Amino acid sequence: MINLLARALMMSTPLLYGSIAEVYAERTGMMVTAIEGIFLMGAWGGFVVTYLTGNLFWGVMTAMLVGVLTAALYGWITVYLKQHQVVTGVAINTLVLGLSAFFMRVIFGIPITPLTIDPLPHIHIPVLSKIPVLGVILFQQNILTYIVYLIIPLSYFVLYKTSVGLIIRSTGENPEAVDVAGLPVERIRFLVVLLAGALGGVAGSFYSIGFLGLFTTNIIGGRGWIAFAICFLGNWNPRGAFFGALIFGLAEAVGIYIQSSGVELLPNELFIALPYILTIVLTVARRSFNVPAKLGIPYKKEN
Amino acid sequence: MNKPLVELKGITKYFAKVIANKNVSFSVNDGEVLALLGENGAGKSTIMKILYGLYKEDEGQIFMNGEHKHISSPKDAMALGITMIQQHFSLVPAHTVTENIILGNVKGRIDWKAYEQKIGELAQSYGFDIDPTARIKDLPVGLQQKVEILKALYLDAHLLIMDEPTAVLTPQEASKLMGFVKEFTDQGHSVIFITHKLKEVMEVADRIIVMRDGEVHGDVKREDTDELELSRLMIGRDLKPPKKSEDAGGKDRKVVLSVENLSVIGSDDVPKLTDVSFDIREGEILGIAGVSGNGQQEICEAIIGAIPSKSGRISLAGEDLSEQNIRERLETGIGYLPADRFRDGMIMDMSLAENMLLKESFGDKWLKRGFLDHGRLRRYTEDIIKDYEVKAPGAGAMAKGLSGGNQQKVVVAREVGSGGKFIIFNQPTRGLDLGAINHVHKTILAERDKGKSILLVSTELSEIFALSDRIAVVYKGKIQGIFDHNDLTIEKIGLLMAGYNDDKGVQA
Amino acid sequence: MNEKLRDLILTDIAAVLLGLILSGLLMLFLDKNPIQAYSVLFTSVLNDKYTFAEIFVKATPLIFTALAFAFTFKANLFNIGAQGQFYIGAIISVAMSLFLGDSIPRGLALIIIFALTIVGGALWGGLIGLAKARFKANEFLVSMMSTYVALAIMNYLLRTKLLETKMEYPQTDPLNPSVWLPIFIPGTRLHIGFILAVVVAIGIWVLLYKTPIGYRIRVVGMNPDAARLAGISASKLYVIAFMISGGLAAMAGFTEVNGVQHMLVQGFNTDIGPAGLGIAILANANPIGIIFASILFGALKVGGTIMGQMSGIPASIIEIMQGFVMIFVIMSYFVRNEIDVRREKRKLRKVVGQ
After folding, report:
1. Do A293 and B94 touch (CB under 8 A)?
2. What's the sign of the alpha-carbon dihedral C287, C288, C290, C291?
3. What percent of chain B has pLDDT over 70?
4. What pLDDT, in 10s, does the model give residues C94-149?
């Protein structure tokens, strides 16, 4: 049970990076529908560099970088060229699916045995990890999970207590007001999309170098979309994203646990599909959203 | 007093499909109220948005205190002491007054308490009764405008540009605003006041710039001119307002639309309409006057069934409509011209012919062997284009390619066609130039003379007085009274619109 | 209007060419000569009837999934779940085909299978529409997630109820040839499913532009507020649009199972949903345009496979080509708009200057 919860926290970590990325971006009116592709590029970049250098730090940094680059392409098309966010996202996701596989081949050829690396180590925090129950769940995780503990309160502070947060929140509600206040709407949106790319890249790397230690093109398998959904279900705020990610992390951990336990009471596929079914159920059941008023709408000034 | 603060020289601005400003030059002096007068679409807002840095001019220069300045963003304008209050307020509805005012004017960590106090004090010093922690969406429009003004005051603006500021105010609120403008300029500041109302110009302006079709057509001192001259400069020709025949609406005519004790609760649980009752007779125009947002929209939408009513009865020619849905109600012969044609009345990306079909896609009127009869629809639309003098290349033209006035003619034609007994005109002339306004007014009066009943909602009192047989005044979802149009004066209607009533005093 | 159509065709061609050039440049990373790879591609496509016909075989399911996206897009809805609806269609087609076998005449069997497939896809899609209409759920998310659920259902069935008799791989037994779609060009795999797809595309065009219900769907898509005030119920149309869309995507399952694979294999055609979306965008959501855009994407697929066989370029080049083409097509919307605006401004200045 304790292991299950620790596992749930671990599985929710990348979803949290991803959904916080969406919270920032969507608060400025930008849905990052390329999130699935950003995750995939992060997983790919993180794996490749870690494999080649043996250095997990550079792996994570590369994941961030490729996440930012993917987001930059997305942001350029949607913010500056003002094209449709959903459509652009799907196009980029298709492209990076091909690119990541193609460059695996370019870099590694056709390997005879699967390529693996040692994933991020679990760090036992002195003293704290010795606390019964909670210690195992909270303080025997890897570094990326520990960073999450900081990101949630930090994001809350940034969004609600600083001028940057005020600008971000205003941009999604009424970009015209931001424009009239003399602030550059497009640049704000673009920069926040880049930030989302960095966070999404790290999230993606969690799957390849955070615990699996390998890379395949289906490694993300819709988890970017789940992060996207968590942002909606969490009402566009860091706290909602936190609880949402925990629920999905738990669903995933339970699925893995039951699959690996060997007993088949219900089909394994049901547990694989659990997070997706959960998203559908919650999307249908959830009421009175706090949607940023201009979500998904490009800002056009002159006509 | 007469030193030019800002000079605009030869400004030209092209938009994709129109030329918005053509070689516009004028100046504004220190301590002066400059009125920018012109019809809708004359280019007043555009030239001011250029001065404020929201738009980039294609040609021309801006000088401030004699120095050539480049204003490429509102930040530049604000740094020069220029601020602008947009016609459609640029506030974030979900945010508080404080959040709106300090947006873009703070750095780093925000001490909310301190800013709230500071803004509260600023508001008080100008006698504005505004709670700095209130959310904009909870404030009435009049107060929202004060928040906009506070934004400008917070920045210590030296030149304040106001775009059609009285459009959302009662006559009394408007005159208070004029008072503020005078007080503000007495301190040596300057104000540019954009308007299309001659009366306001004569009341508040020191000097008047008249614009027409994107060009300056007059630069006159107030004491050297009068309303007649200004209106000629503004329109460029004489317009004959339509004449109303006085015989209609007799008590013996039969009631067509009857609304009894109608109440509507909004989605936020706030009552939007309380106990609204009125009748409209055959060949009668009932005007509904009031400040925008006092239940006019709800009255219209409740009648056609677009919003549910909590209680009350609506009947048309004796037939009870209360249980019917929108489609059934429209099919009994109601025409509805919505206030916002962009949102509610037209499909901008469809052709004019397809727009004519909007309310008649059910049934087999336009079918031939199960398919849409596009040929017949096109011929019908061509006839409408001719009859209503719509300036359009043809029935296949996209609605969005037409000017506002011509779009409105198309919608009017459609609703006149589908409203066999009763037509609702909600703000039928908003945003139109005078030629189009005239045409719409003629159409409304012609339909009345054919015996149709008409509900006219307008925030323009001149329109209400010119067309209505009887006038109902609404305030906070209640009817303040229904009067014969001869029995009302501007002063009296102003008080009623502000919630004052002869017998009851101010309404809660 | 003529200028605009010319712009559309020119920018679309430019977008496709740019996509191919950029993909070609990537081949240099593998020390492959892109010019050689593309010329091998063209010669083998043009010289070989079988390969040429393959383009239309590949285009067939893409026409359906592109129509599925385009149809809901007309109602301003996003059906990102065509892939899942395709899986549902494939499951029903294969199950019914195995069940019917050669018990009844081919024509009748195919009609029954086809009809049931559409019903299944329509119900699956209709549920998404219902979630949107009844619960105001975000149809984009729900349809996206529904694909993963459909995939899980398919995988489960392939492992259990539909598992082949040999019980070796997660796939079904081959279908009895009496439920195969007839080939109409001998010596190729081109089956009548392609003709069906073209006919359906034309039918969808007629439905959208020549019937009242199609008109209302477009009205709701372009302006739901105006539609509501005109008495048009958006929620009913949302369900209808999603049912039709689901049915369309399911048809792809039918043509793939009964026309090409003649069985159901785990993990086949995983990309026709997203590709359909790209095609719909390329064709500006016009059903007739979709036929041609699908043929282009079919050619990319066949070309990618040939390049793999002849030049050793990995199959991921197909997704890269599709992705780049999609991205450039999206950009071409911007370019066209810019061209249009500049042209209008120039006209305006001319008028003013005189």
Report:
1. yes
2. positive
3. 96
4. 999 999 988 899 999 999 999 999 999 999 999 999 999 998 888 988 999 999 99
* Residue C67, domain extent: 58-268
Contacts of B170 (CB under 8 A, 6+ apart): B142, B291, B494, B497, B498
Q: Considering CB atoms only, which of C215, C228, C341 is closest to B357?
A: C215
* C51 occurs within a structural domain: no
> CA-to-CA distance for C60 and C56, rounded, in angstroms?
6
Nearest residue on chain A to C155, alpha-carbon basis: A269
Predicted model pTM: 0.89
**A180 to each of B40, B52, B77, B97, how far by Cα in Å?**
22, 9, 10, 16
Q: Establish if C92 belongs to a structural domain.
A: yes
Least confident of B193-202, B296-305, C240-249: B193-202
Domains recognised in chain A with CATH numbers: 2-111+121-285 (1.10.3470)
Cross-sheet strand order for the sheet of B4-14 = B19-29, B4-14, B59-64, B67-69
pLDDT band at B261 (very low <50, low <70, confident <90, very high): very high
**pLDDT number for residue B505:** 47
Query: What CATH number has the domain spanning B255-346+419-506?
Result: 3.40.50.300
Mean pLDDT score, A31-58: 95
Structural element, H or E, at residue A124 = strand A123-124
CATH of region B4-235: 3.40.50.300
CA distance A135 to chain C (A): 35
Does some domain include residue C280? Answer: no
Closest chain B residue to A173 measured between Cα atoms? Answer: B92
| Among B16, B349, B371, beta carbon nearest to C344 | B16
Inside any domain, residue C10: no
Give B341-344's long-range contacts (Cβ < 8 A, gap of 24+).
Answer: B341/B407, B341/B408, B341/B411, B343/C223, B343/C225, B343/C226, B344/C225, B344/C226, B344/C229
Token code pair at residue C19:
């996509």
Mean pLDDT for the stretch of residues B316-343:
90
Which residues from chain B sit within 8 angstroms of residue A237, using beta carbons?
none
The residue length of chain C stands at 354
Whether C130 and chain B come into contact, CB under 8 Å, resolves to no
Q: Closest chain A residue to C81 measured between Cα atoms?
A: A90
